Structure formats: structure tokens, C-alpha cells
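writing this on my phone so excuse typos. first protein, seq and then structure
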Amino acid sequence: MKKEWKESDVNKLKKWVDTKSNKELSEYFNVSDASIEHVLSRHGIKRKNNKYSRKDITYIEVTKVDYLPTPCYECTSHQISPNGYPMKKVKGKKSIMARYIYEEHFKKEIPKGYLIRHKCDNKLCINPYHLEIGTHMNNINDSIERDRIRKGSLINTAQLTENKVKEIKNKLKYYEYGMVKKLAKEYKVSIGIIKNIKNGSTWKHVKIDD
């Protein structure tokens, strides 16, 4: 469920932003690192210390997946982008930390048009042995194969939950004229949302009772 940020929460975040790491902040407020960055941006809260420019890189070891022989190294020293990636200034420009780590460790430049993929699916990870070069299409295929693409109530803008969509789908089995408008009013969503559920263009993963 998406966190509702109260004024007191924002004030605490503003007070602690230069004294606590993103990891500490996200654990305290029970949100992702990316959510912390979104709130800072939305409220115009600026850091006094530029965490992109730090030289020392620190991390904690976290075992995320059992199919890799080494744990994830979750970066704790640098700022996290709104997309959830640790960032670092390289030659005066902001860069995803994983790109910097890969090139430094393996002493090879990432070809133009290629990106870094995480074998562990952990955006915070900077373990060089969890990183590999690939194309944007490779990344999309990884997302599909590993079921990483957010869907349903995991999407921040979702107005319904899986349980409510299941209820709607079960009611639509006995469709009659005017039902779409009636369900939209009942669940306090737009008619378009109900229509998309009805025709199967959204919430495909929610199965109905036989």
C-alpha cells in the first residue's frame, strides 16, 4: 500500500536527510529508497551534502537470491535515483553506480547503446559479479522471464486491489446493460477502468472463480 506522507513525516525527513543514509531513512519510513527521493523532490528538499560526489563507496552484504554464489552488495554511501539506482558523478556527470563499478572492476568500457543488467534483479546491488552488459531488449526479456514487471496493485497509480478486481470480474460474468457504469460508481473509479477490466486489456493476472 502506498504510504501517505504526513507533514510530520516530511519534517522529519527534512531534518534527517543529511545525517542518515537512504537505507536508514527507507527503513524508518517503511518505503523504498526511490520513494524517499520522490518525496524530497516533491517538497523541494535539498541535501547540503552532495551524495553523488562522494569518493568512498560503502555497501552492506545482503543475500537476495539463491542462484548466485555471492551476496548482493547494496550501496549505502551514495544517493539513490527516483528509479531506485545508486548514482555517482563520473567525469562531472551523474551516472548509474553499477556502470562505474562494472567498468572499474573489469577494466572495460561499456559499448555505446548498451546498459548494465542485474542478474540478481536488485537495483541497489553493486556486486560486479552480479552485473552484466546487455541491450534494452535483453532487459525487457529479463523482466518478463523473471516476472519483474510491476502489475496490478504494485503500480503506484493503481486505484484497485486484486481482490476488488476479482469481485468486479465475477460480477461481469453476469453482464447486463448499464453494469459498467454501475460498477464504476460502486468502486469509485472511471467507466474506462471497468471497461478495460471487462475486455481484458488490464488486470490480466487476476483470475476469476469457475
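second protein below, same order as before
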Amino acid sequence: MINYNEMSDFEVNKLVAIELLVDGGEAGWIDSHSQLVPEYCNNPADMWPIIVENNIDVISPTSNGTEYWEAHKFFADVKIYPLSFLDKNPLRAAAIIFIIMQEAK
């Protein structure tokens, strides 16, 4: 099992880019000696469209009673627990939920 807490932002960004390329999306990632990877973990312009398109919820620390941002995906049409991830960075938490969603397919 992957431990996302131990991954760098670059590694998370790269996994999101790879998943978007697998689905035929435009990620701006170039497989070369110098890889250009969008800043999904740190740039709302890169991550927000993915959050909206995939209906990922991002909940503030004050709303969830912790010191972490929570990103989760709830599946209303099936009776399974929502996917959830906590992180100090809300965009990183959402990026990791996106990766977990793709792995669950």
C-alpha cells in the first residue's frame, strides 16, 4: 500500500499528471530528462478543475475539528465509506484523493 504522507509534492503531482494522461487528459507532463509537472499540490489553477470535475469535497480544519484540511469523495449511489485524506495543504489532500479514486477504478 502506498504511504502518501511520505511522498513529496513532486511525486504526488507526477501521479496526478500520469492519471490524467492515462485518461486521455491534458496534463502538461513531458517524459524527458527534465519533467515538467503541473503544481497540483500548490497551485489552485492546476488543481481546482480536477476538484470540480470529480466532485471532491475540501473541508477546512475549523469545520472538521482537526488541524488538517480534509479532502473526501462521497459516493451517493453506492453504500461505501467515503474516501478521505487529511493534510495541512488542502490542494495536496485533494490531489491524493484524486489518485486514490483512480486506483479504485
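The chain has one domain: 4-104. thats all i got for now
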